[in-house]
Design brief:
It is built from 14 helices and 17 strands. It is of the alpha/beta class. The strands form four sheets. The protein has a five-stranded parallel beta sheet. A five-stranded mixed beta sheet has the order 13-10-15-16-17. Strands 1-2-3-4 form a four-stranded mixed beta sheet, with helices on one face. Helix 5 (179-182) links the parallel strand 8 and strand 9. Helix 2 (108-116) packs across helix 7, helix 7 runs antiparallel to helix 8 (216-239) and helix 8 packs parallel to helix 14 (355-366). It starts with a helix and ends with a strand.
Length: 385
């Protein structure tokens, strides 16, 4: 009898261990399956330098934001948690429940991110509607569903509060004026896509916005398609053996020529499109230059890029009328002015999230032999008259 109980106990252990082992194996398989599924929603920037994401577990996403152009400097830290979750977050992080239900935006670049993710329904406040083309957004502004809070440096805190935002996306290194809205108590989230020096880095901030609206999968898919198109065309240009034309940019305004620096993302698009930008300094933003200095750099440049909001049909005549000395440039006389009118094209509204299309426009002008004969530009074309 004693032996019988011993055998029975051993059998029980065998069954128990076997079941436990199977359960562990099943749990491991489930975890692997969950991990594989969740990997589609993991956001890890490849080109963007201004934000970083960590996943410590429990659905928490730790997001760090900093100036993409500086290795050191202010770092903003946010802990994104699922709505209603009570998990503890690390010290030094601001807790934000996601997906957010309402936001206020400060720039068209920010709006472009929400538009491409089909998430504009949470936008409840914007700075203005100048050069805005989106009919639905304009209709919501007119209906009062989206409020205009004023321009940077002159915000109306009462209008900000009327939007009842969960967060306000800001551009802290631009004109600023955020002291007034800080007092509202609403969390301010820096969106520094405009500081990225890589065109794809700027576009990749759609992943950043996706973290707040629960569209990570969509952002990963959309961005990968953008990057694939951009990189494929860039590689095609790099393999071509044609001449690299030179190009300059900007116009005279207020006595100075405002041109982007040699490290600006636009200068990078020129290079990727197979052209050499005449300014090759280490500046990133717009630098005021007097006409004489610009003429020395660009007098013999092959192309001239202009982006403005001209009321009516812009022309070579209008360009000469604005500054008679413009006629001295080779690009003017060769009729090689590359032009985009922001009153007719939603440039800042959508171009930040489609650098592949901007690149294609430039390639079609600099190296037309590399593009389809029936190519239709999205933003830029050669000014004809």
């Amino acid at each position: 009898m004693k032996k019988f109980y011993i055998y029975l106990f051993i059998a029980f252990l065998a069954v128990t261990v076997g079941c436990t082992g199977n359960k562990k194996q099943q749990d491991g398989q489930s975890a692997e399956l969950s991990k594989a599924t969740d990997s589609l929603s993991i956001v890890q920037p490849k080109y963007a330098k201004g934000f970083h994401v960590e996943y410590p577990g429990n659905g928490i996403r730790l997001v760090e934001v900093k100036d993409p152009q500086k290795g050191k400097g202010m770092t903003y830290r946010f802990a994104l948690v699922n709505r209603g979750a009570t998990d503890e977050i690390p010290d030094g992080y601001t807790k934000i429940e996601v997906p957010v239900r309402s936001v206020v935006l400060m720039t068209m670049l920010q709006l472009s991110n929400f538009t491409v993710l089909d998430a504009t329904q949470v936008v409840k406040g914007i700075t203005g509607t100048k050069n805005l083309f989106d009919k639905q957004i304009k209709a919501r502004v007119k209906a009062g569903d989206i409020v205009k809070i004023g321009m940077e440096g002159n915000f109306d805190p009462e209008l900000v509060m009327a939007a009842k935002p969960d967060v306000i996306f800001i551009s802290p290194f631009k004109r600023g004026g955020y002291d007034a809205i800080k007092e509202t108590g609403v969390t301010l989230v820096p969106h520094l896509g405009f500081k990225e020096l890589d065109p794809l880095g700027q576009a990749e901030w759609i992943k950043f916005v996706a973290l707040f609206v629960g569209r990570e999968r969509e952002a990963n898919t959309v961005f990968q398609e953008i990057a694939d198109r951009y990189e494929a065309l860039k590689e095609k240009v790099a393999k071509a053996n044609g001449k690299r034309p030179t190009v300059f940019s900007g116009e005279m305004h207020g006595g100075n020529w405002h041109a982007v620096g040699g490290k600006n993302y636009l200068a990078q698009i020129f290079r990727d499109a197979g052209a050499d930008y005449v300014i090759q300094d280490d500046n990133t933003g717009g630098e005021p230059i007097d006409f004489e200095a610009m003429y020395v750099k660009a007098a013999q440049a092959d192309y001239w890029r202009i982006l403005n909001s001209f009321p009516g049909d812009f022309s070579y005549e209008a360009l000469a009328k604005s500054e008679p000395r413009n006629k001295l440039f080779k690009a003017y006389n060769d009729r090689h002015v590359i032009y985009c009118n922001m009153k007719r094209q939603p440039y800042y509204e959508i171009s930040p999230v489609c650098p592949d299309k901007v690149l294609a426009d430039f390639v079609a002008i600099f190296h037309p032999e590399l593009m389809p004969k029936d190519y239709k530009p999205t933003f830029y074309h050669l000014l004809k008259q």
